[in-house]
Amino acid sequence: MSSSLESDLHQRHVETKNTETLTSPPPSTKVPPAPTTEDDDMEPLPSQPSGASMMTEESSIQRFMQYCDGSLSAFDPRWRNWIIRGIFSWVMILGFAKLVSMGPLVVSIVVVLIQIKCFQEIINIGYIVYKSHNLPWFRTLSWYFLFTSNYWLYGESLIQHFGHMMNKNNFLQPLVTYHRMIAFLLYTSGFVGFVLSLKKTYYLKQFTLFGYTHITLMILVTSSHQMIQNICEGMIWFLFPVSLIICNDIMAYMFGFFYGRTPLTKLSPKKTWEGFIGGGVSKLVVGFFVAGFLSRYQFLVCPLEFYDETGSLKTSCIPIPLFQKTVYTMPKPFSFLKRTLELYPFQLHSLVLSLFASSIGPFGGFFASGFKRAFRIKDFAATIPGHGGFVVRKSTIFCIRLKYEIVLLGSFRLSNHNGFVY
After folding, report:
1. DSSP state, 314?
2. What percent helix, strand, coil does the chain show, rounded to 5?
3. What pLDDT, on the 0 to 100 scale, is given for residue 380?
4. Quick check: 291 and 348 in contact, CB under 8 A?
5. Mean pLDDT of all residues in the chain?
6. What pLDDT sits at residue 36?
7. Cα angle vertex 31, ends 26, 35, to 5°?
């Protein structure tokens, strides 16, 4: 009996040993250790970016807004905002009209200044939201790249329109000849500076903000550059789209304020279908009459030209056919009212441009609203009381700029092809 018990125990011992052999890894196979790299020290991006702690620099404007709120405390908050927005809308319209009366060069300078302000608003968001206070040279490099981009693009415009005059100046002549080489070296220097500023702890943040800065430059600088190009080809190519945006913003707000019931998009809950449609229809009507009004004046439709004899800019010319009155035969359904109608061809173009602007332009505002929601901020800045910062106003212009570029270039190519003088 004892021998059978011993054999039983021996059998169990053998089975246990075999089981351990099957479950244990082969002696030649080694489990690799957990990877350890220096990247463990890297600071991650914020999982939930928040700009709630943004410090606004426009403290005087905020104090003024508090004063306005106190003065209008008897009104409902909704009507209070309506009054403030209305007052400052008229202030901006009158200020814009004054700038236009001062000439295209002043308008161009203002466009550049607004571009710089928009850049500051967007870069400040990245600087604060990503907690970039410890990042070496972030702000310096961002502004350096803005300078480099402006030097390249605006230099190209100056050479295109005033190169003949600049070549006569001994100081400016080398800048004209080697403009693109200088611009390339400036950007390369900034790129090298960025690489040298990289720190192990902040790699991910630095590359994220590098891309953030370049996308901002692509949107702001290129659109501002094309606006100034439009101004050089004739102020009407700048004034007309801006007039449409002003009209759309005002009328969409008015229709939405009084009749708005149906939300348009979750990105901007205050926007309504009633405001969207009302603003679009108003833009078609107002744009038609604004186009006719602007087409009357040579200094608005003629491109800028520099005359060596007088040493000054000249904005007088023989307008291209697009800005010359033409007699049109009315279609049969409307011929009983009037058989012919005298219009500027640009007025007919304005209907298509207004339709495009009313359907696509608001998406610039939606884009800005989505951006603010992504970073959990209420406004880009408090620069314009009741309206926020400049970025929202400029984002709409960016959306419709390309359409006007196509029309502008197409009309001039057609006029040159047919031998018209302008």
Report:
1. E
2. 70, 5, 25
3. 60
4. no
5. 77
6. 45
7. 170
